[in-house]
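Our consortium's second objective concerns turning raw sequence data into structural hypotheses that experimental partners can test. To show how far this objective has progressed, the report includes one record in full. It was chosen at random from the queue rather than selected for favorable results. The single chain below, 270 residues long, was entered without modification.
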Amino acid sequence: MSGVDLRICHLYPDLLNLYGDRGNLMTLAGRARWRGVEVRIDERGLREPLRPDEHDLYFIGGGEDRQQRLAADDLRGVKGPALKDAAASGAVVLAVCGGYQLLGHYYRPSEGEDLVGLGLLDLITEHPGPAVPRLIGNIVIRAPLLGGVTLVGFENHGGRTHLGPGARSLGEVVSGFGNNGVDRTEGAVAGHVYGTYLHGPLLPKNPRFADHLISAALRRRHGDARVEKDHDAGHQAREGHVGGAHLSGGHHARHASRRADDDQSEGQGE
């Protein structure tokens, strides 16, 4: 795919990066590069503005309540208008767990004031309180947008998310809890905006979904360019050998991702 490039933006890498979320970026970069696509990954933290025409794909990870609150204020006040414009023009947005909640209308934590979201997804999230068990465990869903293929991951969230009519679920829960543990939905999709509770990280475990996102992101500036099926790349992704990513922009050499085992017992976030 000579002359084709993919520009990715990682939002709040220091604040929202639980459960190895950075692995999603490594997978996107690796699988695109295996097909000859040049990849650039920029990072944007607090108080760093966005340009709506600069990136093809935006990623937001998960975090606890304190980190979510910091990100929510900045997302709404600093980055929100540009991110909305980018999504409206065809850019892909992928948000996991805490980031997913912030794309809705609001997140109501177990304590404190509501976190007003960006409203890119028609949903609300409410935490039922510290006395109610969190939704934790392995999860399997069936995703219609991928032809019914199954996606797998790990979920750990206290918030219960309910979709409005303007969003459809990413998939139907086969095993696990999903958005709220009741209606068997998981995640949300509106246009090229995707939200999910699947950690793992998500994309190394689900390379077909990664390829779907890459193809959608490339179409923004490169028309019909898309990622063709690549058996060697798929095998490498399943084995966990994903390509590294060149980081540029606001921050370099971020902290390593925290281990999932350490995070399960922390706080009442997400």
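The partners drew two points from this record. Confidence is low (pLDDT under 50) at residues 231-267. The domain at 5-129+186-247 is CATH 3.40.50 (Rossmann fold). Both points have been shared with the crystallography group to help prioritize constructs.
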